[in-house]
Amino acid sequence: MSNIESLIQGFGVAFTAYHLALMVCGVLLGILVGVLPGLGAPNGVTLLLPLTFSMQPVSAIILLASMYWGALFGGSTTSILFNIPGEPSSVATTFDGYPMAKQGRATEALSYAFLSAGFGALVGVIVITALSGYVAQFALRFSSPEYFAVYLLAFASFVGLAGASPFKTLTAIALGLGFASIGMDSVSGSLRLTFGLNELLRGVSFLVAVIGLFGIGELLITMEEGLRFDGVKARVTLAGTLRAAADLPRYWLALLRSAVIGIWMGITPGGPTAASFMSYGLAKRFSRRRAGFGRGEPEGVISPETADHAAGSSAMLPMLALGIPGSATSAVMMGGLMIWGLTPGPTLFTDQHDFVWGLIASMYLGNVVAVVLVLATVPLFAAILRIPFAIIGPVIIAVCVIGAYTVAGATFDLWLMLAFGIGGYVFKKLDYPLAPLVLAMVLGDKTEDAFRQSMILSRGSLSIFWSNPLVGTLTTLALLLAAWPLLTLLVQRLGGARRLA
């Protein structure tokens, strides 16, 4: 049976009143989870999972997947309106989404974010439909060296393509890797950088760090500027939303490039967060309006949102076909499959045909439902900008505190949040980039594990990273990107020397 015929059968399974109602409920719950910092899609799906044990597997996975889509959209909302990423993968959206909101362009920023996210998700689902029968053969070629090469490529893209000072970027990456290494070593079991504090045995929570860096850090900056909230006068109209939708095709190159990046990082272990950062870096590097990035450039919202949702959708493919989750949320969903008595892998497509294709069909429907719902609530979200900062400020602090405490129920996390908030303030004052630090905290553990496993396999030889064409290409490209600032400087000096001669 062809994939198209299977997809038609899947729509017969998913397109029922009951499943559509589950999609609406899941999306609304997901938006709420995404809006609240400290929860996020993985935690939201985890909390909802026990409630699905009495449901049919296909209904349960539709509810969880719809919550996932809603959380991704909800994370964009607080990123744009408050500069507080509700989702880790929404961090890059803050760089230009929040400046647009402060300029009174909240409707435009939210519309660009939601529409481009819907496009990225749709492309990701189309890829799943087309490649679900063939992905196993390719993805089985990935082992520790390939994983490390992908992570190295994500880091190197910041050094070579972000446009910031390479020294400051490397400093941020080093700090992020250092924070990621705090706690118990997963390989040797030894303790690292805990300084005798039992609270650090479990490491530094990424969500706590993000809440501090962006939430508290931005509040400190705003307080220094005199408690001004520039987006108060933003007006929201249906015409503004339709105008943004009409302008979106102008950014077709950014949409396609970001969708490709997102699909690649979703199928490989890079994940949505790395995809959004990499897409933003490439957009900033190659855009004709690169000077506007960080000041409210629409392409700076469109690129990370497209990549984020393309990666979120396509991450389901390796989870279903190989049992290899491409994101934290898909890992939680994979646990749900096992609880329901289903075994992820190539045989799932034959043994549970209706389940798999019902899920894939629901991904088309669920993302359409999500886009419609979030666009319908754009006026509600943007109306928050009319509230005076004297009211919004304490509310944001309360949400940040609740979000940080919810992660592990530890008072120590509140002090960590405050420390990271001060660090975020210092970084912004000294013009150090936060994105590489955040990315290093996300991928630090995975990068270290992949590198050490590769060294064990090769008995300490770095040649393993050129042991086959795939890993060799990835590693070489990463090194070229990392050295790009030096190569550019060398070419400029040689050109200057020739002109003087």
For this entry, give a set of tags.
23 helices, two-stranded antiparallel sheet, mainly alpha
Enumerate the spans where pLDDT stays under 50 for 5 or more consecutive residues. Answer: 228-234
Tally of contiguous helical segments: 23
Largest beta sheet: strand ordering:
1-2
- What is the succession of H and E elements? HHHHHHHHHEEHHHHHHHHHHHHHH
In total, how many beta strands?
2
The shape is globular
Structural category:
mainly alpha
Radius of gyration: 22 Å
The portion of residues assigned to helices is over 70%
What fraction strand? under 5%
Mean pLDDT: 79
Give the N-terminus to C-terminus distance in angstroms: 70 Å
Query: How many strands, which pairing sense, and closed or not: the largest β-sheet?
Result: 2 strands, antiparallel
Explain how this protein is built.
This protein is mainly alpha-helical and 501 residues long. Helix content is 73%, strand content 1%. It contains 23 helices and two strands. The chain has a two-stranded antiparallel sheet. Helix 6 packs antiparallel against helix 18, helix 10 (206-224) crosses helix 21 (411-429) and helix 20 crosses helix 21 (411-429). The longest helix is centred in the C-terminal third of the chain and has 32 residues, at 469-500.
